[in-house]
Amino acid sequence: MAQNKTNRSLAYQLISFVLTFMLIIFVISILVTRILYSKIMLDIQLSNMRHLVHERIYLIDGILFKVESLAKMARSVTADYHLSDVEKETMLRTLLLDNPQVHSICLADNVFKGTQPKVMYTVRHRFMQRDVSGLDYRYQDWFQIPHSIGKPYWTEPWVDNQGKGEMVISYSMPLYDKGEITGLLRFDIELKYLQELTTNPSNFRIGTSFLVSSTGTLVAHPDLDLVMNQSLFSLAQEYDEPSLSRLGSAMIAGENGYIKIGGKSPFKNSWIYYQNIMSNRWSVGVSIEESVLMEEVNLILLIQTMTSILIFLLVGIAIYARALSVSRPLKKLAEAADGIGAGDFDAEIPLSDKSQEIVTLAQSFSAMQKSLKGYIQNLRITTEEKNQIRGDVIYASEIQTKLVPSNVEHPLGIKELRAYGILEPAGDIGGDLYDYFMIDEDHFCFVIADVLGKGIVAAMAMTMVSTLLLSIAPYYKKSQELLLELNKFLSRNNIESNFVTALLGIIELSTGILEYSNCGHLPLYIRKMDRSFMKYAHTHSTALGVFENLDIGSDTIQLNTGDEIVLYTDGITEAMNINEEFLGLKGLEEIFSGLPMPNPENTAKSILDQVHEFARGSTHKDDITLLVIDYKHPGIK
Amino acid sequence: MKPLRLILAAGILILCIVILGSCKGHGSDSREVSSDPSVSGEGGFPIRYCPKWQPQAQFAGFYMALEKGFYTQYGLDVQVQKLLPSTEAIDSLLTGSLDIIHIDLLGAILANSEKTRLVNIGQISQRNAMLLIAKKSPKMNSLADFEGKKLGIWRSSSNLITEAFLKEKDISMQLVPIDWSINLFLQGAVDVINAMRYNEYHHMLQAGLKEEDLLIIDLHEMGCRIPDGGLYVRPEFYAEHPEQCKAFLQGTLDGWLYAFSHPEETVDVVIAQMHKAKIRANRAHQTWMLDGMKKNVMPSAAEMGILKREDYQRALKLLQQEMDFPRDMSYEEFYPNGAK
User: Fold this and answer.
1) How do the domains of chain B map onto residue ranges?
2) What is the three-class DSSP state of A60?
3) Nearest C-alpha of chain A: how many angstroms from B193?
């Protein structure tokens, strides 16, 4: 038998079901982990960035504050009119030498009275001083802006060509005398120093620090191509990235916060934390690429995914092994069942297993095996008994067959008669009977009988009737006498109270006189040479074997030469067609009308054939008996 | 005096014909770089030239002409001279250390005195890009609000147009001379600042200022239709080397045409020049500047390189009326090419 393709093994079903379920759980778990961890990691990393920015601001603002303080102290000294110019310059010189953070100092006092500014700086710890030439300095931011606004001012980065020629940022403050600005004092910090403070590696292992001036210019950044060339706004424009412009506006406005930058700029896909520097309104930012930010999350997800796959494999293997341990006894049970099906009722059924369900199933199976075994044993005995009975029945059938006369052309050697009988039992043996014999030299006796019922009992009764008639016939010459004697016997000995219909006739061969009695049997027909027939339906009593004191009459008929006596049992008239209609007497008479000239053998066989034809396809079956006798057939003469 | 002028004019005319004849072969393919080994920079006519300012896209045409060999193609060996700090280009020209300079029209006209003369050999910029910018406020909404306010104004000759404009509009402001920095304005030390649309204005945008927060007075749009940058030589130089003057103009214009049709490459070249000069550069700004220069240099292809008579007359009149310029120079004298 071809196995259905949709039938899968238990292991396959278990593994696919459990693993699908687990896959759904793992996917949900990974997604939830990613969302939650991303948020947590982002918070942690943003916090780290904030610390990094604070660290940078602490360093830078510390320097700026210190320089501011030094400048203010210096201004106090320069304003002290008790000190000579030489003393003031000595103080500034000491201050410069003692504070390496101060790159250079420019004293531009009394410039409007013709004094030229002086720049002081050190070269390899040697003090240098030079006068600033010309008047161009007055148009430089360090001079012009604090002079115009009358307040100290931190410049944007610039190159002091009159000093050391390095890029610096300057803290420049006006000097006053009696409310009038007399000049300016400028303290410079080398930009490189601030850049190093900004971009030096930190204790925090991630993040890129950068410094933005008050115009949004990138003053310090690890990418030197950007430094002093680009502002956040120019990058925003170059890379068409509005978020950089927002960042620039926030930073120059002195705000603190986080922002995510997209696009293709050098800050692409980065988170940035920014905070302003109090001293000069610059701003420090730290950027971390989101991929770096999410590195740990991705690592966790990778570990989780690998763990999931490992669990998948282990669970799969475990399920497979367990499913095998479950299916193995099932397979053995199936093999045992196949064995039992093939007749091996002693096939071993495994009754021990770890699984209670399997044990219960095996026990049920074993009980079924035992029941089947007992049943088959009983069946065998019954079958043997039945076969024995059947043998007996077949034997009885043979005996019964031998009880009826064999068909010969002239029965008992009587030349005046021809007879042909057919006995066709519904089963192996039947309850019908026909017989004929000579009572004496001139008297031919024939009988047809039908015992109510079928099978053994009917056959026994039939045998009794046949034997009795043979034994008592020589003592009686009249049909009614014979039947009365038969009735008495049956009435007394009929255990099953079966009654018997019978028609018995005695033909006086010398005269052709037929004397007969019909005890509850079907009508007798006599067919003539001209193919007409006579029906003798009168019965002379009820059936035999019921009432002991039965009154039986008789009739006589003068047979003519060629007359054919047709006797039959209810198997003929009660033959049923496929529409459950009986053949009946009428049907039989129609058969007669189609028969050729009387001839017992032809007549009997033709009737039987046509009855069989009529009953074709019907399941109903009864014993059929026919006896046809003709008297002094013309052919004999 | 009169016969001398006639002879000069006739001489110029003849020279122009000669130059035109010599230039006939160039035509529309003049921008292509010549691979003719006979025309080399080293063997060419030496020209000492100094742009008005540091390298930037404002002079993209010149740098592209150098880069692509257009000057060499015209038989010139152009040597870029570095201007010393605090030195005016006109002074260097007059002292003979430069052959060709690039200065504003008003400055050039004003430089013509009894003793000195300048000749325009080509007008590069056809319109000025000067803006006066203030931060918008309820009290700063129009040009009239400039009255009495502090104006940061360049202390170079580029301030002439602003001063003339303010006088014409009869607006009196406190002038604060400044250099190139816009920080004075950003810090609020001046109320108004002069700025080139292609340069300082964009610097402001790159420092976080928003266009909508600024009051911008465009001098050209306010009727001050005076062109600015042009190429100038001494009359003697022009008289001696008219072909070379023409060639220099043609090479420069070819450079500009190339720059406008190859903006990406041009910005690369300009930025490389800026890096070489160790000055700050960003691409967005140079791209903006090149785009701005296109509007100034090439309002239409037909106008390129020409000083129009009406522009000259307008500039001269402005100087005479507002700056008390005493001279009345003819268009042809100032711009010999215009005599044709």
Assistant:
1) 2-126+227-339, 130-218
2) helix
3) 14
